[in-house]
Amino acid sequence: MSTRRTPWLVAAVGVGLAGFAGLAGVTVFVAGQGMDGSGDWAGVLSLVLAGLLALCSLVVWLVRLARRVDDGGPPVADRLRKAVRVQWTAEAAARRLTQPRPLRLTWHPTARPVSVAAPGTGTRSLRGSLADRDALASARGLVDAFRTNGQRQLVVLGAPGAGKTTLAVLFTIAAAEAADGPVPVLLTVAGWNPAEPIETWVAGRIAADYPAVAGFGPAAVATVRQLIDGRLVLPVLDGLDEMPLPLLGPALESLDRAAGSGLPMVVTCRHEEFEQAVGQAGALSNAAVVEIDPVRAADAEAFLTDREVSGSTRWQPVLDELRRNPTGPIATVLSTPLMIALARRVYQRPGTDPSQLCAFRTVAELERHLLDRLLETAYPGPDAGRRERRWLAYLARHLRDTARDPDLLWWRLARAVPDGVLIGIVAAALTVVGSLTGLAVDGSAPNAAFGAAIGLSVGVLCGRHTVRVTRATGQVTGRRWIWATARNSIVDVTVAVTTVAALFSVLVTAFLAVRGLLDPPGAVAANTLLVIVGTDLVIQPGYAVTFAVIGSIFAAVLAGLGAGRGGEPRRSSLRPGRLLPSLGFGLTLGLLVGLLTIPLGGPYLPLAFMLVIGIPVGLGRWLTGTPAADVVTSPLSMLRSDRTALLATVTVVVAGTAVTAHFIYAAPLGLHPVVTLTIAAVFGLLAAFGTGAAWLSYTMARLWLAARGHLPWRPMRFLRRAHAAGVLRQAGPSYQFRHDLLRVHLAPPEPPPPDRTDPRARRWWPMAALLAVALLPVTSVVLPEAYEADLPDHDDTVTYLLYGTDGTLVSGSDDGTARFHDPVTHRIRRTVRVGDGINVGFALALSADGSTLAADVTALASNLDEFSPREIGIWDAATGQRRTVLVADTTLDSSGELALSSDGSVLASAEEDGVRLIDVASGRTVGTLPVPNASILLFHPRLPTLASTNDDGIALWDTTTGARLHSLTRAADSAFAFSGDGSTLATIEKDADGHELVRSWDVDTGRVRWRRTVDTSLVQVELNADGSTMVTADEGGRVWLWDAATGDRRSVWRVDADEISTVAISPDGTRFVTGSYTGRIRLWRADRWGR
């Protein structure tokens, strides 16, 4: 058994035993809590069975991982050989390395002091040249010479543009054709950091560039590493000179160590840089070093004129100068294959004039001219490719400064986007989704804002996950994925909470700074965010739990989907054999999270967590797997496959989550199907971001870069055209500039930017996080919170809240008491018992000046029957003493509303046949109004006018004459309120469509000033003294503040988890008070809600 397999099998057995023991312990624990119902036992049984399924799946996954890691050897090597041969044969044709015939290159063992002569080996066989008609035959000769030379390394030196990469490509194709040797793999070595062993780096690059060979993830890297350790791979490392100069010495030391352990390799490098590296670290002890000769003039002449028509003399001036001045600019420039190929490329059309080359006096001018003409030839047009040149220049700077690698990989393009931008894009998108989701629940602004807050939190989690995947430098090894999952989850949730806290603190601070300068709409907008983040979490602690639970679930799903994946492209792979292990991975993750919730909800909650988390994670990992072995990778094919994998994953996850959520959540609770679809859509977004889809981050990056003018809107098409035009070359899934000279020409050297990894440059964000957390308790103290105080509770429903003009508040309750509250301290000044709790629904009235209180005291009388007369007590509000008891001409079973005139001299009593007006001082009836069974009565604050409502609607009456002044509405079940100055009457009623209709009336004329319709059931309306502010309450525990003059809503807020039974607003409009069916009374600051 392989030593690599043993730990995984041991882990599988250990996980299985630990899992069975853990499930047994959970069963004993839950059973010990006492369960009498069969449903509880069914829940425990379901939990145990589901846990067993998850553990079995995980064990299978670990065993398969062990087998997969040990699946290296000849079959994998054969697949790799085929992929390399097909890839580089096609690329050689695209680069026209052999068309119409290759440029003749010669090489010889170098005479530079950079090599060590190995005993018993010769160098004669390492001399050679590319044949005129069969370059591959010459390359095969170099391969054979290298194999028989006895040394493990071959170093190819040359000047810039001397043809080192061309020779490396031909060497790779020739070596790949030989079935008995190691598989050559051509890699650009500039991105290697010598701190990492070259074997490890090569294994990671091969696994990433050839996913069709070994698959994805740590297992693929381990499989390739086995090929390397078995000497079945021959790395061809091109461009050692493109590494930073300080790293060249350590690089040679690492290469020499690898060669000493038996790893064969080929290395290309410029001769000057190689000499400097040897001067730092010494010569390679197992290397044969050859150098490419400058191209002879005769070979250059043959190549330049090879495709000319008979009799053409276009090139004659150039050839004459080449012979006449062998050390001049033309001879120097046309001594390298790169410049010779460029010259023929830009002057290949018959209408061009190569003699222009003779006009340049220096080598640098001539090289710049050829590079400029290459771009003009590649992008002809009126603007001579100015846009394309700008885009290419940006890519050159990106590869130099950000990627620090000559390989242009589309999935790493997102590294050019700042972390904050990526997180901001994701967070903004999910904030909008959350807001729309909250709005879809009931159409209310608070739910939309609460959904936005949830979306922001989840968006930060997803954004951080996207950044982490985008910045990943490699795969997380199998032994570290658990720690990576736990660490990432904790960090992400912490950052999300800190972000919300920071936003909350900033909003509060900003609001305090500009308070008084905002107009009402601006104040409402600021307060909306404050109340959602602050008030709801204070009033309803369940919301805070919701944030924590949702954040934990999402973090677990994201970390589970992305664990062990380094941000490389994926392919959709519907392989049944991987379904069970993938589901086992997801279900186990869900079970671990769910076990923590047993104390909260018994055995059913862990089961729900396991399914809701496990299914999306399992399906997401299953659908992003290994492609077919015969697939040849290219940038476009990998982009399309990753996009297809993402769409397939999201589709299956949405469908699976919708079915699961419907049967375990929505259907048992009878919820609307939109809830199921919302849950499925949310998990679809998690699958999109959690699987580490490279296409998603690439899409965000290309949109951002295109918006800033750095790249076109469709960069992949631009790159394909640049490759076809000869500006770029393709190396497997990556693009590269045709030569480093072209990259430097587009992006000349400049002072390097400050190192972004400098700890001092990143010190600001933890300080900002600490400041945000520190500000949170401070803002909770200085927050202009609308909630002000809890007044002493009643023992039953609060039925009346009445304000006098002096600010005195009277509360009445079905517990039979009325309480007078001090307008400053809000403490109870006195309590009046007006009933014994038996006569539920007694009437209560307070005069506008606050001097007199009237209440139904019939229930205090003895020997009551259904025909007993109704008795009404009158109290002096200043002393709390009952002055008198009036007897109304009605019976107990028809007790109605009461109202007191503004000075407390006249009492209106609702009776079966009408409203009776009683003189309080004498107890005599002074008049009647024809309003039978009135449900609400209210005196005008200044005039002898009474407003009433019954089944016929709302009407205004003159109490001195008994005349009807105005009939305002015809709707039954209405409510109304006068303003303190009596000029305005506000009414609420149901319209013909069942909506709540709010109207403002001019009392003098009886005409409507404005009307508004709301989609909720309002229970009460009140106006302050000057009629500027109106307050209404609905049955959902929300208070609505209005501008009474215009009818504009200033704010709508949930102020109580219970339904509001009544509401009142203070005379100055700065406070309002709410009562609930549980007896709770709360005082609020209206002036801090947008006034």
TrEMBL record:
Q: Where are the WD repeats?
A: 1053-1084
What keyword terms does UniProt attach to this protein? Answer: Membrane, Repeat, Transmembrane, Transmembrane helix, WD repeat
Q: Which SUPFAM superfamilies match?
A: Quinoprotein alcohol dehydrogenase-like
Database matches in InterPro entries: P-loop_NTPase (IPR027417), Quinoprotein_ADH-like_sf (IPR011047), WD40/YVTN_repeat-like_dom_sf (IPR015943), WD40_rpt (IPR001680)
UniProt key word Chloroplast: no
The cross-references to Pfam families, in alphabetical order and at most eight, read:
WD40 (PF00400)
* Membrane-crossing residue ranges in chain numbering: 7-29, 41-63, 421-441, 447-467, 488-514, 543-567, 579-598, 604-624, 645-665, 677-698, 764-783
| The protein, known as | NACHT domain-containing protein
